[in-house]
Amino acid sequence: MGDEDWEAEIIKPHVSSYVPVFEKDRYSSGANGDTFNRTLASSSEMGDGSSRRDHFMRSGFASGRSLGNRDPGESNKRENTSTVGGFGVGKSFGNRGFSNNKFEEGDSSGFWRGYQDGNDSEGSGSSRRGGRGSFRGCRGGFGLGSPNSNYEQDEGTQRSGGIFGSRRSALSGADNGDTFQSRSGSGSGRGGYKGLNEEVITGSGKNSWKSEAEGGESGDTQGPKVTYIPPPPPEDEDSIFAHYQTGINFDKYDTILVEVSGHDPPPAILTFEEANLCQTLNNNIAKAGYTKLTPVQKYSIPIIQGGRDLMACAQTGSGKTAAFLLPILAHMMRDGITASRFKELQEPECIIVAPTRELINQIYLEARKFSFGTCVRAVVTYGGTQLGHSIRQIVQGCNILCATPGRLMDIIGKEKIGLRQVKYLVLDEADRMLDMGFGPEMKKLISCPGMPSKEQRQTLMFSATFPEEIQRLAGEFLKSNYLFVAVGQVGGACRDVQQTILQVGQYSKREKLVEILRNIGDERTMVFVETKKKADFIATFLCQEKISTTSIHGDREQREREQALGDFRCGKCPVLVATSVAARGLDIENVQHVINFDLPSTIDEYVHRIGRTGRCGNTGRAISFFDLESDSHLAQPLVKVLSDAQQDVPAWLEEIAFSTYGPGFSGNARGNVFASVDTRKNYHGKSSLNTAGFSSSQAPNPVDDESWD
Ligand SMILES: Nc1ncnc2c1ncn2[C@@H]1O[C@H](COP(=O)(O)OP(=O)(O)OP(=O)(O)O)[C@@H](O)[C@H]1O
């Protein structure tokens, strides 16, 4: 988040959200276009994994070795070299920076200097604040600075000290994307707290729960305020219940092994009817197009209805959101809730937290959908939007509060939300919510005055990944008799995603990306990169290549982020370049491809990223560029994740895994990457299986995976 200085240098007001100003052409096929092209991903072929794979192999994309061979000599310059010029002060884009493939090498002028300078100031809120200013709608800029930092650490690492730096804010009150927004130069912007993937504003309400690091950064009295008011979501029923179709593999969910651990779990339900929900909820479920429960829903709904605490782990895109929303709503309807009415202090019965703004907004929309026609009122509040607007929404009534952590603490501090009535606390992406980025905020939340103790509230945690150490931390939040539901392999990738790992050196990545995207055509594709600056860079580069692209990352204004997501969702920009901020939870229809331009630093992150495709029984593809210089540490967990998901494992990747980890490494070893099961060793609970297709003895034995530990 320290790249504000170079950002100020960008002069490209005509590019909003990276929608290039050209007529989209039909993208002529690249060299391999005749084998890897749009028709490959047509629904008929998507159903046939083998034929897809064949095409893919023929196209050459799976040929890691040959790709890798092109790279020697172009590696190991990643961290200590600078880029070509072309992005210096006042310069336009597109000269050497884009034509030269080696954008990480070269001299230290222009783009690169800003690139590095920005990171240099990562930990220093004040230095960042001084130099901001940019055109809204046109992020990404290239300022000047000294090339002495490591841009890789931009978004993928935990901050210390600097994590509470300033959150940039627009000075102008106009939320007009085209207006020039000068940013604070006062050195006193709103207090900002930056987690790993998210930046959330923490202000200083009267009784603000300010951490040490927040101290002195008042959100109220110093610096500019965030003025963005998100447009209200459509109110018509069709929009509220808009949904996409489940895919051809939806029924295969029934064959996934489910393990429930902990004392005395209630039996799973098999149908929505068995959940005994009220008629309004049933109507809403039907209008949402749900006819059949997913495994995580079959097990979680009765557990939550039984009043138990829960940690649930299920593959990406398999319906975890409804798994907690439906039973909570059912309880609320059954127990009766205070109907929404204006009050300065609202006391919601349910608080849901999630790590990113877009995700919490999505959860809110789901809550609104399922509570349609009831007196339950859900409200959302998240950073990057006007606090006053959030407060106005909240005081009108709030039974379910959906919030990002920093904004939640802010609102609590302002005494707009009281916690005494909280019966349900939901941590979505719970492993992320408890890690070093958000864990401290969550601890503060549960020790806020008024927050019922864990014995008196129901705490629910959901994620597709649950590392062991996080499971242990979670014990602090959960009653000791909580239940653990594992659908499939804890931390495993969704099997509906066809995964391909290509060996691509740093300096061949852009060329390869363009080649793949040209062959993909207009199919929706998310391209993940490791840093915010690189997201801007690659998005702009792709626009230059006449590929309609937008970008989302933590340094974009919230309005820009939402615009980008909107443009991607509706297909206006079929390519979204993103950092990890978009890795988790986002449920976007028709994302057919995920490309890891940069692999993430952890395997969990990989699993979440590729889970943006292949959702709800639909198939998808993930292509990852594996750079020998920087990604070797991922070889072993990648081999494991690939083989668990029954994907082809490239021989070269296995070799790297072996050579990295020595003769002790076995293809079945998992290392310490994931817990394979509930980490509590002392429970005497039973395990139950999702019966369709397996009996206990026939089912794959989850204990096999413990050899990884
Ligand atoms: N029983 C169901 N029938 C049909 N569609 C469903 C059902 N349950 C969930 N869905 C749909 O499946 C999609 C994915 O659900 P959801 O976003 O809750 O997945 P998730 O498990 O939370 O994924 P992630 O791990 O990525 O956060 C959504 O569009 C949701 O509406």
Low-confidence sequence ranges: 1-222, 666-676, 682-709
Determine the CATH superfamily of the domain at 237-487.
P-loop containing nucleotide triphosphate hydrolases
CATH domain topology of the domain at 237-487: Rossmann fold
Bound molecules: adenosine-5'-triphosphate
Q: Overall pLDDT, averaged? A: 72
**Strand arrangement across the biggest beta sheet:** 6-13-7-12-11-8-10-9
For the record, give the distance between the C-alpha atoms at the N and C termini, rounded to a whole number: 36 Å
Shape verdict:
globular
Under the CATH scheme, which architecture of the domain at 237-487 would be assigned?
Answer: 3-Layer(aba) Sandwich
Helical segment count:
25
Kindly estimate the percentage of residues that lie in beta strands according to DSSP.
Answer: 5-15%
The helix-and-strand class reads alpha/beta
Task: Give an overview of the whole structure.
- The protein is an alpha/beta fold and 709 residues long.
- Among the domains are: 237-487, 3-Layer(aba) Sandwich (Rossmann fold), CATH 3.40.50; 497-660, P-loop containing nucleotide triphosphate hydrolases (Rossmann fold).
- The strands form four sheets. It has an eight-stranded mixed sheet with strand order 6-13-7-12-11-8-10-9, sandwiched between helices. A six-stranded parallel sheet has the order 14-19-18-15-17-16, with helices on both faces.
- It is globular.
- The two termini are 36 Å apart.
- Mean pLDDT is 72; it is low at 1-222, 666-676 and 682-709.
- Adenosine-5'-triphosphate is lined by residues 243, 246, 289-290, 292-294, 297, 314, 316-322, 464, 585, 587, 611, 615-616.
